[in-house]
Amino acid sequence: MPHQAPTTSAEGEQGTFAIASDGGGDPAIRLRGLRKEFGQVHAVDGVDLDIPPGEFFSMLGPSGSGKTTVLRMIAGFELPTAGTIELHGRDVSRLAPFDRDVNTVFQDYALFPHMTVQQNVEYGLRVKRVPRAERRQRAKEALDTVRLGEFGERKPDQLSGGQRQRVALARALVNRPKVLLLDEPLGALDLKLRHTMQTELKQIQRDVGITFIFVTHDQDEALTMSDRIAVFNAGRIEQVGSPVEVYERPASAFVAGFVGTSNLLSGGGAENIIGKPGVFSIRPEKIRVDADLSKPADVGETSATGTVTDTVYAGATVRYEVTLDAGGQLSVVRQNTAEPADFEGGRVRLSWRHEHSFRVPEAG
Ligand code: ADP
Ligand code: MG
Q1: What count of Cα atoms within 13 Å lies in the side-chain half-sphere of residue 299?
Q2: Alpha-carbon distance 141 to 186, whole Å?
Q3: Which residues, by Cβ under 5 Å, contact ligand 2, an ion?
Q4: Side-chain half-sphere CA neighbours of 97 within 13 A
Q5: Residue of the CA atom closest to atom 23 of ligand 1
Q6: Which residue stretches does the UniProt record annotate as biased composition, category Polar residues (predicted)?
Q7: What is the rounded distance in angstroms from the CA atom of residue 126 to the CA atom of residue 118?
Q8: Which of 35, 41, 59, 218 to mutate to test the pocket of ligand 1 (most atoms within 8 A of CB)?
Q9: Which atom of ligand 1 is nearest to the CA of 65?
């Protein structure tokens, strides 16, 4: 067989980074001291961020934490109260949206109902007076990229929700932006379709190699799709890191609670069990639960006794809420590998490796 086009994600990613970094090493996006006030509301309260070319970057945070406002400032729909925005080394802070090499995909991606899919995707190019033949060709390529090459003649109402979302994506990709901004683009889809689209979107991003900035309030979505995540809280970024860093080593109690289940030991409970004052985070799935209290903890493990106050059966996993004798409460998640054990009301010993309980700063 002759050499095949590379299809593995590893090769795709390397290629992307190699090409993208030819631009002289400037990040795709650089934000410095970015602020936005709406009257008394500090919607964005001092954001500094560098996003390298080709990254799938997520902004994760609760509703109202300023994610959309940051995205709208990058797109040029809002002007910053203070601070700067650079795209590939060029200060665009004061430029109009159409002078910035970015495109946005929104959750309510209104397609023109009377136009075909092909016409919808071509529309932006027509406005820019791109010649007809080139328009056709580029729209066809964009539709192929989102795997809708055969659907060009359909009308939007002849498509499923996921297909319509992909048309919206094609409509943005057809402009060949350097950066694509996506504001909760999967929010309107049901859970199953959402999961399918998460995988597809990630694959499309690898294929095209464009920097994606993806806004979501869904921690699972951010963890599964992103190269890196910024966790937002009240207009500020609390932590930037890979999914593993953010989940395994949350930089604050807020991040520990928002990304994953908040499972904190503090006060007397922490002093008694860990032997140090402070606030400590332990992920529920790192904790072992055992009904045999006489069994000593293994070397390298911390352990604590307590009483199971609640059992939540969730199919693949079972969660136990445990009130600790030393003070405090912990959740424990167990894979449902055998019959779920019924510890409810019973006495248990919890144990975890020392390194799985770690100190988090107390104020975000
Ligand atoms: P998120 O996308 O994280 O949910 P937003 O960026 O939409 O958050 O909003 C951040 C804060 O700014 C919220 O308190 C919101 O009510 C406020 N806000 C956003 N846009 C406006 C606006 N146009 N006028 C007044 N307040 C706004
Ligand atoms: Mg928003």
Answers
A1: 0
A2: 23
A3: 68
A4: 11
A5: 38
A6: 1-11
A7: 12
A8: 41
A9: 3
Enter the pTM of the model.
Answer: 0.86
8 Å CB contact between 172 and 203: no
Tens digits of per-residue pLDDT, 110-122? 899 999 999 999 9
pLDDT, one tens digit per residue, over 182-225 is 999 888 788 888 898 899 899 999 999 999 999 999 999 999 99
The length of the chain is 364
From the CA of 39, which ligand is nearest?
Answer: 1
DSSP state of 227: S
Q: Is 54 exposed, middle or buried (0-12, 13-18, 19+ CB in 10 A)?
A: buried
Tokens for 166, please give them.
């992909």
Neighbours of 55 (CB within 10 A): 24
Question: Which atom of ligand 1 is nearest to 72's Cα?
Answer: 6
What domains are there in the chain, each with its CATH number? 9-257 (3.40.50.300), 263-359 (2.40.50.100)
Q: Which atom of ligand 1 is nearest to the CA of 61?
A: 3
Q: Whose CA is nearest to atom 18 of ligand 1?
A: 43
**Which of 34, 59, 68 for mutating ligand 1's site (highest number of atoms within 8 Å of CB)?**
68
Q: What angle do CA 215, 219, 223 make, to 5 degrees?
A: 90
Q: What are the helix (H) ranges across 76-218? A: 117-127, 132-145, 161-173, 191-208
- Per-residue model confidence as pLDDT tens digits over 41-85: 999 999 999 999 999 999 999 999 999 999 999 999 999 999 999
Q: Are strands 102-105 and 179-183 parallel, antiparallel or unpaired?
A: parallel
Q: Residue type at 74?
A: I
Contacts of 280 (CB under 8 A, 6+ apart): 264, 265, 266, 270, 274, 357, 358, 359, 360
